[in-house]
């Protein structure tokens, strides 16, 4: 197990290293002179020289990348061009908000999705199955931001029972926090639930057709016990992988959800940083999202290895 | 007389009513996009500042926007963007991804290792975030948008084709081709690609809907195509500020997105089931 863990950890580091290179290279390719982007066009040549040096643009690409990477390893993401503060300061405020919301969404959507997927597979062809299938097919086609706006229209504008936007930590004002969180979490769950449900259903259906399930039936085991003791346990293994995908999906949805509800999280920061051409912030946000997803996938693979010894051997 | 393979495929495909309906819906959207200038009741760019933000009326079915432009006409024109980006980016991803995938699957070696690590990296970045980062680099515009939506899908095609080529390349008909002197390129494009094409086609049809959703998301964030061009995502975003005066402004374009994406998804699933009936109802 230790060896497997180390191997997986090494793989993750390689991928993360590639991500840093990719992110740096990509954003270095942005057309236009960053000096003009920061200071505007009406600057004196001396000013231009100074900022040009300050940004390290007189050095070759690989040197700049090396400096950026060594800063990153020490937790220094550079300075935001737009906000004029270290990027870490921005992230320190915004990352926890995104995490907080996404963890809640993730918890609700996985547990609900697995539950719905199992019911749907066990009662295949029944009314419940049809309902769940239609429900998840519909929500797979609906843009999250549109659901968000419709919710805002009905709950906040028409009925005026929820605030339209914003974010408050629960320990600052619990009632307000809950009221502000309802809509973003609902949107997050509704858009990610169908992925979870469909995956659980299909992996459960695959298991139900296996020989050992037939054997269990043949020896006269009760259907309930077959499902609980044999089917679910085996079907949940691929579902663990799904949680890795789910984390990516939910984090990928953050920029949109946080924009719709004006939540000052990392997704919102990323979107506004792109608008402001604030490259250090964009780099940091993309890197952190990739890092979170890589770590989640690693954790998933390790849990997978613990649950199913066959994986480790492969 | 024995039915041709294609006929049999079409018969199975349209044996289910919902697939038939979806096919018709997709066709309607295609016609709408192509014939937009004929179908749209007004010029989508013509401003009428005397009649801004009107609600539903007989003259303007979905009302008018903040510049007095007819929302229905803008939605009709918006279908062009969604379809071009949706279909275009799937095609681009297929061409780039399958070429790379076949090459690394055929030749293997260090190139294979390097490319596979790069795909690992791309899978680590959520598609939306990847598209956002690329949007920062490429800037706005129809072709940029189409390209950046395709990038996130490329690794999927690379892996798929690589796997297929690796499975096929040792088979007799490929060896035979090699023996009579066919070049690797010929073997790849004329023998391996057609041989494993049906799962790819299924994957492509199933991903158009998702791509359209992604495009709508980017347009919503203002990172797609610059105004005054009408996009569905952009319309929803504009309408957000006028929920109180004209909620249809935001709601109507969304209904079009949902309809088109749903029809495309059902059609995609239908094509999968018709190609391999064993898979029906599994996913």
Automatic annotation (TrEMBL), chain A:
Limits of the ABC transmembrane type-1 domain: 95-304
Membrane topology annotation: Multi-pass membrane protein
Source organism superkingdom: Bacteria
Keyword Membrane in annotation: yes
TM ranges: 12-30, 99-122, 134-156, 176-196, 235-261, 281-307
Keywords carried by this UniProt record: Cell membrane, Membrane, Transmembrane, Transmembrane helix, Transport
Compartments in which it is found: Cell membrane
SUPFAM superfamilies: MetI-like
UniProt cross-references to InterPro entries, sorted A to Z: BPD_transp_1_N, MetI-like, MetI-like_sf
Principal localisation: membrane
Secreted is among the record's keywords: no
Stored PANTHER family: DIPEPTIDE TRANSPORT SYSTEM PERMEASE PROTEIN DPPB-RELATED
Sequence similarity: Belongs to the binding-protein-dependent transport system permease family.
Protein name: ABC transporter permease
Organism of provenance: Blautia celeris
């Amino acid at each position: 197990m230790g060896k497997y863990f180390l191997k997986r950890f090494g793989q993750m580091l390689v991928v993360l290293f590639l991500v840093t290179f990719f992110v740096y290279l990509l954003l270095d390719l942005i057309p236009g002179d960053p000096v003009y982007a920061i200071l505007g066009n009406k600057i004196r040549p001396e000013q231009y020289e100074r900022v040009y040096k300050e940004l390290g643009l007189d050095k070759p690409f690989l040197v700049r990348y090396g400096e950026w990477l060594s800063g990153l390893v020490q937790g220094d993401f550079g300075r935001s061009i737009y906000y004029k503060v270290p990027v870490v300061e921005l992230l320190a405020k915004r990352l926890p908000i995104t995490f907080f919301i996404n963890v809640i969404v993730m918890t609700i959507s996985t547990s609900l999705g697995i539950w719905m997927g199992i019911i749907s597979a066990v009662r295949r062809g029944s009314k419940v199955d049809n309902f769940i299938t239609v429900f998840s097919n519909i929500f797979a086609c609906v843009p999250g931001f549109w659901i968000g706006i419709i919710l805002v229209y009905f709950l906040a504008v028409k009925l005026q029972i929820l605030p339209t936007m914003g974010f408050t930590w629960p320990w600052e004002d619990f009632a307000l926090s809950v009221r502000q969180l309802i809509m973003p979490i609902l949107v997050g769950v509704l858009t990610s639930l169908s992925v979870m449900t469909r995956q659980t259903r299909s992996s459960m259906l695959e298991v139900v057709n296996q020989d050992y399930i037939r054997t269990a039936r043949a020896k006269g085991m009760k259907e309930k016990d077959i499902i609980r003791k044999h089917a679910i346990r085996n079907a949940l293994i691929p579902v663990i992988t799904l949680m890795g995908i789910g984390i990516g999906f939910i984090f990928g949805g953050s920029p949109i959800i946080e924009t719709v509800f004006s939540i000052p999280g990392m997704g919102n920061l990323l979107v506004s940083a792109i608008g402001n051409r604030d490259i250090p912030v964009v780099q940091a946000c993309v890197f952190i999202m990739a890092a979170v997803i890589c770590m989640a996938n690693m954790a998933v693979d390790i849990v997978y290895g613990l649950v199913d010894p066959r994986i480790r051997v492969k | 007389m024995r039915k041709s393979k294609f006929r049999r495929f079409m018969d199975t495909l349209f044996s289910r009513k919902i697939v038939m309906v979806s096919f018709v819906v997709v066709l309607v959207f295609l016609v709408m996009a192509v014939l937009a200038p004929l179908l749209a009741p007004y010029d989508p760019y013509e401003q009428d500042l005397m009649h801004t933000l009107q609600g539903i009326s007989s003259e303007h079915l979905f009302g008018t926007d903040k510049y007095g432009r007819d929302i229905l006409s803008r939605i009709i024109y918006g279908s062009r963007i969604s379809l071009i980006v949706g279909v275009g980016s799937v095609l681009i991803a297929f061409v780039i991804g399958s070429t790379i995938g076949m090459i690394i699957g055929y030749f293997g070696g260090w190139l294979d290792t390097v490319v596979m690590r790069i795909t690992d990296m791309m899978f680590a970045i959520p598609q939306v975030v990847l598209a956002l980062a690329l949007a920062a680099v490429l800037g706005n515009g129809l072709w940029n948008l189409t390209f950046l939506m395709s990038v996130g899908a490329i690794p999927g095609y690379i892996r798929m084709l690589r796997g297929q080529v690796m499975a096929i390349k040792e088979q007799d008909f490929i060896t035979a081709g090699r023996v009579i002197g066919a070049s690797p390129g010929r073997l790849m494009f004329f023998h391996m690609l057609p041989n494993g094409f049906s799962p790819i086609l299924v994957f492509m049809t199933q991903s158009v809907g998702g791509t359209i959703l992604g495009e709508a998301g980017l347009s919503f964030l203002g990172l797609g195509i610059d105004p005054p061009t009408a996009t569905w995502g952009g319309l929803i975003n504009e309408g957000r500020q006028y929920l109180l005066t004209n909620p249809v402004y935001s709601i109507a374009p969304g209904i079009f997105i949902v309809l088109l994406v749903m029809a495309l998804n059902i059609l995609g699933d239908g094509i999968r089931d018709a190609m391999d009936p064993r898979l029906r109802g599994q996913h």
